[in-house]
Design a protein that fits this description.
alpha/beta, six-stranded mixed β-sheet, four-stranded antiparallel β-sheet, 9 helices, 10 strands, 22% strand
Length: 265
Amino acid sequence: MIRAVDVEYRYPDGTIALRGVSLEAGRGEKVVILGPNGSGKTTLLLVLAGLLEPVRGEVLLDGKPLKNQLPDARRRIGVLFQDPEDQLLALTVGDDIALGPRQLGLSDAEVEERVRRVAETLGIGGLLDKSPHKLSGGEKKLAALAGILAAEPEVLILDEPTTGLSPSRKRVVEKVIVEAARRGASVILATHDVASAYNLMDKVYILNSGCVVASGGRELLLDEELLRSNDLEQPLILRLYSVLVGGDLPGSLEEAARRVAERLR
């Protein structure tokens, strides 16, 4: 669906943010980019979204250069910025969520239905008449995410989608991401939260100093030394699982906790 091939990006001041990065996400696949602050995660997402142009390499959408499909391809790609303030534009939350669907030419009834459905799913149905700039940080993130989901893009590019959220809201966002992929969307998200990464990922790329230092499946997140060397913290439950249970990898940290608890009985 979307693929980066040997991408390099250099900022105007000469700083090299990406050094030959390759990555791909198929339809219905959830790809996580893990890495410490300053590793190049956000820059890579902006390149994948077509908002920055690499100085070397290219991004392909459906096997064709993304740059040749812009600006039309932007309707197929939804981007959640790390700071939701950067994309909350309307006077009310409801109007903001409606911006994407309206640009698709949907009827007023269809737009209203999408706004209501997405807001209720994310637990912000009571905020639709409020100013987005008077919301808490977590509410702003949910409102920005709602605006993206309401447009039902084929590719979701999410920068730290669970950071700053309460545990209950984090679970809601994780569920929404899983459902979007189940419906066929390609999901690429960047985070330094190894717990969320484990729950969400089909595939993980670990980025550091602008390079992919490792890629693979959940087994990478059991490698404590790999995580530590890239300034990432392994969840305690994974350490306990490795020591006390072992064997097949659990599908989520909740499952890991249940199996550890059963072993300790």
